[in-house]
Amino acid sequence: MQLVDRLLKGDKRAAAKIISMIEDRDAQAQKIVSLLHHHTGNAHIIGLTGPPGAGKSTLISALVREFRSRGKRVGVIAVDPTSPFTGGALLGDRVRMTDVGVDDGVYIRSMATRGHVGGLALATYDAVKVLEAMGMDKVFVETVGAGQSEVEVANLAHTTVIVEMPGSGDSIQILKAGILEIGDVYTVNKADEGGAESMVTNLKSVLPEDREGWAPPVLTTVASEGKGVPELADRLEEHFSYLKKSGKLGEKERIRSEVELRDALTETMLEKLTTSKGGKKLYEDVLDKVVSRKLDPHTAARRLLSGKTG
Amino acid sequence: MAKKIRVLIAKPGLDGHDRGAKVIARALRDAGMEVIYTGLRQTPRDIVEAAIQEDVDAIGLSCLSGAHMTLFPEVVKLLRQKGADEIVVAGGGIIPEDDIPKLKKAGIKAVFGPGTRLEDVVKFFEHAAGK
Ligand SMILES: Nc1nc2c(ncn2[C@@H]2O[C@H](COP(=O)(O)OP(=O)(O)O)[C@@H](O)[C@H]2O)c(=O)[nH]1
Ligand SMILES: [Mg+2]
Question: Residue A169 pLDDT more than 80?
């Protein structure tokens, strides 16, 4: 397929078109993603999450610059929420990324959640594959940053960065958000504003000193001035090597692959069931029986799969 | 799923006011579109690069500095160079009547002055995206 060939050569327009097809659930999208699968698995996927205004977009921009200076090709997916009322979205993360946006070795894409919860869009997963297949070494994913239930990014990313800022809540709030479990690297950004040190102390007091051979570091950064960014980049590289050496990378990939396989299996089975001859009617009949309590969902599923409905 | 309309709202030039651009961006969002906002002081190259990477259907340019006669056509020219001239370009801001036909000749599909109704802007972009 021509679009795929262009993508594999690093063509940004091809990437842009393919990601739109994925988002719009175009009939061709699934086939394209299948073709890309063999070309993925080499990039380092880095997720950034944290409260709105903490400086995630600014930090990504600074990290992109840093990794470009280290000769890496970098992709970015920045997710913002879709309005549940209008279906529209205002995607503003690019405002912080203007100077890196025109670099040949950089591709940036803004993405709306389109109803998906958990801080990402459904299309983010396949869009990451598109960026991997086009040859990106580092892929950054910025979550919505609504402040809660942002844990989904940890399933997608190899390395999850939690971006906090001075005074962005006490340790109780930090505990609540579940971010103590998902962060591989923590940074208190806006360290120029004062109060960063107490935030660092706060975080360190509640974080584990060792998590299966990795001690989540707590750094400080001033993203708008690039301060602390080379150190942050070093920690990201270290975490990636740790994942590779310890075998954790394989574990993570297995978990992610299994989720993908399960989703694909469900989708394929449903498609097969409902598009076969009389399948749709059979499916509806069984559904009616579940509604009227004549069948329970598990028995119903087994019957649908065996083709007998009785 | 229906194809979403994606629009890039950008401010080329050196003026530092983006209130108008933000009003347009919000109106388009409220009409169900995905609006990529790129902020102040964008060069035509920044804008065209962003439009391509974001796969937008259309670009809305807002310029108050008076440099629209060079900046708007430059965006159209760069899009053509990149083979991305299916992306529709519209402009707004403080634009003298006399300039409008010239801009249209240069490939700017619509020019919105200060008195433009938001519904008309929304309709234009819906139409531009083929809806
Ligand atoms: N003082 C200061 N401001 C910053 C820093 N990093 C980002 N900002 C500003 O904080 C605001 C929010 O940044 P942004 O990157 O959009 O945050 P996000 O919502 O987490 O993506 C912007 O006005 C940035 O310029 C920093 O290190 N220090
Ligand atoms: Mg942001």
Answer: no
Residue B1 lies in a domain: no
**Residue A58 and residue A48: Cα distance in Å, rounded?**
11
Quote the number of domains for chain B: 1
CB contact under 8 A, B34 and A20: no
Same domain for A180 and A127: yes
- A3: burial class by Cβ within 10 Å (0-12, 13-18, 19+)? middle
**Test the B interface: residue of A91, A93, A108 with most B CBs within 10 Å:** A91
Phi-psi sector, A88: left (phi>0), alpha (psi -120 to 50), beta:
beta
- Per-residue pLDDT tens for A7-16? 999 999 999 9
* Backbone Cα Rg of chain B: 13
Angle at A69 between CA A68 and CA A70, to 5 degrees: 85
- Spell out the SS3 assignment of A139-195: EEEECCCCCCCCCCHHHHCCEEEEEECCCCCCHHHHHHCCHHHHCCEEEECCHHHCC
Q: In the numeric block, which tokens belong to residue A19? A: 């990601």
SS3 A227: strand
Q: Residue B55 sits in a domain of what CATH number?
A: 3.40.50.280
Report yes or no on B93 lying in a domain. yes
ipTM, two decimals = 0.95
Burial of A190 (C-beta count, 10 Å sphere; 0-12/13-18/19+): buried
Q: Residue B108 belongs to what domain range?
A: 6-128
Percent of chain B with pLDDT over 90: 77
The answer to whether A101 contacts chain B (CB < 8 Å) is: yes
In a domain, B36, yes or no: yes
Token pair recorded at residue A127: 């869009």
- Chain A residue closest to B32 (CA)? A88
Q: Which amino acid is at A107?
A: Y
Domain span holding position A272: 261-306
B-chain residue closest to A25, CA distance: B1
What mean pLDDT is reported for chain A?
91
A168-179 as b/e: b if 16+ CB within 10 A: bbeeeebeebeb
Identify which ligand lies nearest to the alpha carbon of A146.
1
